[in-house]
Amino acid sequence: MTGTYSLSRKEGWRRFVDTTPRTRPDVLTSAGLAALSGDARADYDEARHDWHANFGIIATPQLRAVREELELIVASNRQDPDRVRGAAVIDGHPGLGKTTIINLFARDYHRVALRRHGELTDQGHEHIPVFRVGLTSNTTLRTLNKMICQFYGHPGADRGSAAQLAASALDCVLSCQTRVGIIDDVHFINQHSRDGLAVSNHLKWLANELPVTFIYAGVGLSERRFFDEGLSGPSAALAQTARRWTRFEVGLFDHDRHWLALVKAIDRQLVLAAHRPGQLSGLAGYLFARTGGHIGSLMTLIIRGCFKAIRIGDESISQGLLDTVRIDEAAEKARRTPVGTPVRTAGGRERS
User: Fold this and answer.
1) Of 46, 144, 273, 307, most Cβ neighbours within 10 A?
2) How far is CA 213 from the centre of its chain?
3) What is the DSSP letter of 227?
4) What pairing do the DSSP bridges indicate for beta strands 213-219 and 245-250?
5) Cβ neighbours for 275, distance < 8 A, ≥ 6 positions apart
6) Residue 191: half-sphere exposure toward Cβ, Cα within 13 Å
7) What number is the average pLDDT over the span 286-305?
8) At residue 308, what are phi and psi to the nearest 5 degrees?
9) Averaged confidence pLDDT in the chain
10) 116 sits in which H/E element
């Protein structure tokens, strides 16, 4: 059974950091499957379901490019505590792997920091190189501070004013020598509301006070004019977000060699008795039409397709089988659109 944990708690984050890659189940022939006992077959199928849902991350061009930029920003942020470090923000539409890119980078950074500096700080505190929180649609100044305290397991996380929780969060970060802060789903910040403006200003305060490189992720930030805050009129001189945050966009795949390479890489991971090498690659065009170049939609389609192929005994992925698998509504809506009709994406672009 797949473990359950939250990356917004240090225990869950540490489990994610410490987890070793899964072992790929052996590919059995149809005769090998038939020779298994009932319990052995059930266990084997469970192992395959877990594998297909978690076989690892494929190094797409987007992942490699953004990772290199994050490494540059974090490694070069060596300013003394009295100076503000630059931040990075990963922007893009849903289902393109933004959170995955950040989590993988932060996981590797965490591992390296522990190897170099040990499990404890010089003062004997737990060394936690990275903290991670995800915002919600009703995040306020107090709840943001509370979430940071909860990540560290601070005993006072459930009580105190916003200012008291901010002081506790500051103490946690400093005591644990945290150097990277991940804040996901920043698109929930409404800078035109009172609470949203308070949260936005608090993020700037944290960047001023903490010796931490912040990495943010959000959906459609550019379209929401998230970076235009304060950049016009008499307040232009006070603008900070667009000056301090380096934006990286994770875009859709095009139907090109990169898409084909991605499908080929997935093809090699399938553990199905009747699957032939290259079979999935032959469906690259169909898969693009079904998912519109969204890697999240693609993975959902493949995972559910593999589950169904095992359950019904086909042990193979075909277009006919995938036609019976429903995925996210955006992809299904595009699927129903006649070929050649421009489809407007969430960002306003048209794709044929």
Assistant:
1) 144
2) 18
3) G
4) unpaired
5) 27, 315, 316, 317
6) 16
7) 93
8) -70, -40
9) 86
10) helix 98-117
Spatial distance between the Cα atoms of 137 and 129, rounded to a whole number of angstroms? 27
Average pLDDT over residues 244-268: 90
Residue 240's pLDDT is 57
Q: CA dihedral defined by 204, 210, 212, 217, rounded to 10 degrees?
A: -30
Q: Where are the domains of the chain?
A: 20-58+253-334, 61-250
Does the pLDDT at position 241 exceed 70? no
What tokens appear for 345 in the block? Answer: 């994406």
Burial 104-142 (b: 16+ CB within 10 A, else e): bbbbebbeebbeeeeeeeeeeeebbbbbbbbbeeebbbb
pTM: 0.83
- Three-state DSSP class for 118? coil
Say how far apart CA 49 and CA 308 lie, in whole Å.
10
Structure tokens at 169: 């969060």
Handedness of CA 74, 222, 182, 96 (dihedral sign): negative
Q: Which fold has domain 61-250?
A: Rossmann fold (3.40.50)
